[in-house]
């Protein structure tokens, strides 16, 4: 068993790329102190892999993580990618796919959240941080299974001058 030292980032990698990129920008900025070891560097899965093998890779990444971060945006709760019914090996007539794997209707996001909750409840995961790609926390956008877990914070806030500012200090504190 490996030590859990990494940070696992989940989210809509197409719709919320701005927020995800900002976390990595802060991590790579030598003047800032947001430091985390990215679980995605541990093992890779390509989009061409079967959904079940991608989920296996996601599980391996989570197994070495102490922090689970979910970026919540407009589409996060609605994402279906990763659900077996959209896989080329899916058979609606059987409980197992054509490759003899059990059928899992959870999206990647649902799978990641449920595995994080399990690990957190088992004392294996130190923290869950849910960052809303908004200026307010809107739990109706968050996957239902994880709305009552972790620290919920915003990615940016509206300043008194009417401008939007990244919420670096609160995010840094939540990840520390």
Number of helices: 4
Question: Average pLDDT across residues?
Answer: 87
Class derived from helix and strand content: alpha/beta
Order of strands, main sheet, comes to 1-2-3-4
* Domains (count): 1
- Rounded to the nearest angstrom, the radius of gyration is 17 Å
Q: Which sequence of SSEs, written as H and E, runs from N to C?
A: EHHEHEEEEH
Query: First CA to last CA: what distance?
Result: 23 Å
* Total E-strand runs: 6
Q: What's the shape?
A: globular
The CATH topology corresponds to Rossmann fold
* Main sheet: strands, sense, barrel: 4 strands, parallel
Annotated CATH architecture = 3-Layer(aba) Sandwich
The helix content is 25-40%
Strand content: 15-25%
Short description:
By secondary structure, this protein is α/β, with parallel strands linked by helices. It has helices at 17-28, 51-63, 108-121, 168-175, and strands spanning 6-10, 65-72, 127-132, 151-154, 156-158, 164-166.
Mind explaining what this structure looks like?
It is a single chain. By secondary structure, the protein is of the alpha/beta class. The chain has one domain (6-77, 112-175): 3-Layer(aba) Sandwich (Rossmann fold). The protein is built from 4 helices and 6 strands. The strands form 2 sheets. A 4-stranded parallel beta sheet has the order 1-2-3-4, sandwiched between helices. It has a two-stranded antiparallel ribbon with strand order 5-6. A hairpin with a 5-residue loop joins strand 5 (156-158) and strand 6 (164-166). The mean pLDDT is 87.
């Amino acid at each position: 068993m490996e030590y859990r030292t990494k940070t696992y980032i989940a989210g809509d990698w197409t719709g919320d790329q701005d927020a995800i990129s900002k976390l990595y920008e802060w991590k790579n900025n030598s003047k800032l102190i947001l430091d985390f070891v990215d679980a995605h560097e541990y093992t890779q899965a390509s989009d061409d892999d079967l959904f079940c093998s991608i989920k296996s890779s996601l599980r391996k990444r989570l197994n070495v993580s102490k922090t689970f971060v979910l970026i919540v945006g407009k589409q996060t709760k609605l994402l279906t990618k990763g659900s077996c019914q959209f896989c080329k090996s899916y058979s609606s007539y059987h409980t197992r796919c054509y490759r003899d794997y059990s059928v899992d209707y959870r999206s990647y996001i649902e799978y990641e959240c449920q595995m994080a909750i399990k690990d957190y409840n088992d004392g294996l995961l130190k923290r869950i941080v849910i960052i809303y790609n908004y200026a307010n926390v809107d739990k109706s956008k968050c996957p239902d299974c994880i709305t009552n877990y972790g620290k919920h914070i915003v990615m940016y806030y509206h300043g008194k001058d009417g401008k939007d500012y990244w919420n670096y200090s609160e995010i840094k504190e939540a990840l520390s």
